Give the backbone structure.
Amino acid sequence: MKQNYINGQWQDGGSSKPDINPSNTADIVGHYAQADAAQTALAIAAARAAFPAWATGSVQARADALDRIGSELMARKDELGSLLSREEGKTLPEGIGEVARAAYIFKFFAAEVVRLRGERLASVRPGIEVEISREPVGVVGIITPWNFPIAVPAWKIAPALAYGNCVVFKPADLVPASAWALAEIISRAGIPAGVFNLVMGRGSEVGQTILDSPQVDAISFTGSVATGRRVMASAGPRFAKLQLEMGGKNPLVVLNDADLAVAVECAVQGSYYATGQRCTASSRLIVEKDIYPRFIKLLADRLAVLKVDDALKPGTEIGPVVDQSQLDQDRSYLEIGRNEGARLMCGGERVKREHDGFYLTPALFADADNDMRIAREEIFGPIACAIPADNYEHALTLANDTEFGLSSGICTTSLKHASHFKRHIQTGMTMVNLPTAGVDYHVPFGGRKSSSYGSREQGSYAVEFFTVVKTAYVLP
């Protein structure tokens, strides 16, 4: 059984839970300890005790530790990518790519450690100097989702440690193997006991203890909107610093002048790769009516030949849905779409492969309306809906008519429309002739409206959440 990591020691939990391979439900990836509230409180106390020394210690020691973590992740990307794909279900190339991204994130923040800047200004009062500096927030609770089981933890843990914070990390219950592997690497990187802690277990117990603890100064969460609201309701009243990354219902707008081959590939990659289980997936395809029939026909033909199979098999393009609960949710939305009057052009079939798994063929609804539930609610599966638009202005209105505002995209050869779209789309990220899903590790990630709350993640912008600003006045 793989244990929790608390105050520099590996510890059993009160119980354990199997990690099941969604490509082959008979395959148990491993058994992982489940922490309880008492163990979580011990991890928080350990982080609090370790904070003063870590916050004021050597920046070079921090940089070296993060660099070692990044180097080991990169050296083991094939092995860890296979583990990730085995437990989460994304294809092996996607799994390996995710581990490599995590490696780059740690190496990026290893360099950021020694680049933290301050300012020195003259006061409006003669003879007085003003110094502006950044200090770590304190103890950070990190709660991550199952769909990116090593990249999302990396882009939260790396900056937290880089800027001198201590971490209590609770991964998603569905994907403990990747989190444990990352924690094991961190445990050998030269970081003092208590600075980093791993507590695996249920959100209702482990997560809630983190949210309620007055010793946790900040919480970085990625997950559903509903859970994000609970995070805010629990930790907001005690004025914890919050960073919430939540859902998306991302539009990909396709105009009459688009290169259709490019547009179809953007839709396939953005909507269906990673089995559509990405908050940045383009689940609304808003297409000008003159090219609408051709576009949906080309897209349906492309989807029909995608290989849906075991995540670890060579040539697999779409892996399984992560578990039975998610599969049931996906299938319920297929029924909702049919009942709402959308036309299911292809896919949405539960299929069998060599082993029992949660396989669902990629589905495309045509002739959807933006008021339908399938166009308004995040499905989080290999399902997208196509919505016809009268013209560019109508397409932009439809794209912005959503409670979400994470990612968006437009396929066009018009510089005028591309420029207008970039300025007027109400999302935190937007792409031109590119899939809505897929962002670099060194630039800010985040959205607007119900998609995000708080400071941006990733890149140099991460400093905003993981530090606090201090202004000091000095009379020499």
